[in-house]
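RECORD TYPE: protein structure
NAME: DUF421 domain-containing protein
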Amino acid sequence: MGLIFIRTAIVFVALLAVMRLMGKRQIGEMQPFELVITLLIAELACIPMADTSIPLLYGIASILTIFFLHQLMLLIELRCKPFRTMIDGKPSVVINRDGLDISQLKRNHLDLSDLIESLRGAGYFSLDEVAYALYEANGQFTALPYAQKPNGERAALPLLIVDDGKFDEKNLSLTKTDRAFFEELFRRRGIKSVRQVFVLTLDGSGKVYLQRRGEKFETFRVSLPEGCAW
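PREDICTED:
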């Protein structure tokens, strides 16, 4: 028991020193390859702590080897930008001046629900509140708001009505509307089918955010049916 305690303490000190030498970037802004390295170091540390038949030096040597490989990769990244892009990836702009970038969402295996959840986490509840939004290479979400919000608009939570060409039945129920209401809206705007619409949101004040596939987004207001409120 005492031997395991001493071995664990030694490995703990070694791990603490290695993680400290890796710098704050390793902890606060973990890139994909750094996550792999962190998981690998954790696995290597467990083996000599639990198995006294394995020399402690083997575990320490493995951890130090991973650390030196990590430092080598960082050095190569600083000297060779294409290598950094290949290993870490690059930020994906999912909202731009034209609205949502469908191709970037699909490339990152994201849907509208994921994006809206990220927006709420950043403090924005409407798609047209931000001029640009992107997912960094480490998965962190960043949004740049418009300089000003339109004057005179009351706060109203937008709900996702059309998600990638399909109606969200749950939100239709919450807004006390139906498909016929939006199909008539589509007809008036020259949209033949809901499948042409990538995203449509509606808030409690009647403001609509609409983006057709391959086109710039637009916002406008509609008169809500009687009893439609949330």
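COMMENT: The beta strands are 92-96, 99-100, 130-135, 141-145, 159-163, 166-167, 197-202, 207-212, 218-221.
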